[in-house]
Amino acid sequence: MQIILVLKLKFSAFKAFIFQKERILYMKKWFTIIASIFACFTLAVIMVIYIYGPNINFYLLPPSPERYGKIAIKKMNTYGYFTNSKAWQKTEKKALVDMHSVHNYDEADAILQKIIKIAGGKHSQIVTTKQITTETEHYEEPTIINDNGLVTIHEPQFQGNTQQANEYANKINDFLFKCKHEIKSIIIDLSNNNGGDMAPMILGISSIIPDGNILSFVSPDGTSERISLKKGTINAGGASIDLNHNIKLTNVPVAVIINKQTGSSGEMTALGLKKASKVKYFGQNSASFTSVNRSFSLYTGTTMYLTTAGVKDSKNKLYVNDPIVPDIQTNDPYGQAKQWINSFN
């Protein structure tokens, strides 16, 4: 009996040992499967980041100068306004070959600088970190003169921070609100305004532009994005601006002065004014940077400003680096503008 009991105990211990061993093997098997799945998932994430990370300027490792250049060329090819042209196709092919022999990022940037205007036109450019650090922020306030109800507003280019953007726009907005009952006519002087952020420029004078669609950004495939004014806001530009007053003075004659130095966002502001009910343009043809740029940050901090769309005014006329032609070509825009304004009296 004792022998049988011992045998039973040994058999039970053996079964427990086998069970424990099988359990360990089972756990090892699942651990291996889970580890393999995790490894595959990690590898897949790494591959996704490697392939698509550059789209948002994210890199696991520094790209080689060649890859850096090819990533930029791919962005030009994807988004550039003129990349359907034969000129670009030929240029892209040569640039990809040239990138094989670059030794550093500066050499890659030099190639990108040569080709970007083929992809995006005259408004496109490469701005390196060296160029950025040598440029100083320049902020110039708008000026306003009230001559017995004839108000002259000079809007200079805007290069500044958010606080300055609000100061710029509200200096004009506050004046128009304060003097709304005195104003008989307005001259908007955009001469020598070569761009920057259009939001403070347009919102500053938004009191004389009816709400609604003022511009459309039109892609090469014909798709468009409407740019609209609504209760003192605009769905474009960089700075976030809160106007102090939401007023409209849409029945006064508005003379717009432009010249050869009126460019980029200065031209966008001029085109936005075409929605005004009584408006006329004086001066010289503008600088012909009537297009929409999109900025792309590259690994080194270099910024690629690439034209991705043309612009339509509220009269449905399309501009793609075309000049704004004034109604009256003149070297005396103020004199001619005042003469036109006097015709309303």
UniProtKB/TrEMBL annotation:
Report TM segments. 30-53
Q: Does the keyword Acetylation apply?
A: no
Pfam families, per the entry: Peptidase_S41
Q: Which GO terms describe its biological process?
A: proteolysis
The record's annotation in SMART domains points to: TSPc (SM00245)
Q: Name one GO molecular function term.
A: serine-type peptidase activity
Domain Tail specific protease: where? 120-331
- Which controlled-vocabulary keywords does the entry list? Membrane, Transmembrane, Transmembrane helix
Name of the protein: NisR
UniProt source species: Leuconostoc carnosum (strain JB16)
Please spell out the taxonomic lineage of the organism that makes this protein.
Bacteria, Bacillati, Bacillota, Bacilli, Lactobacillales
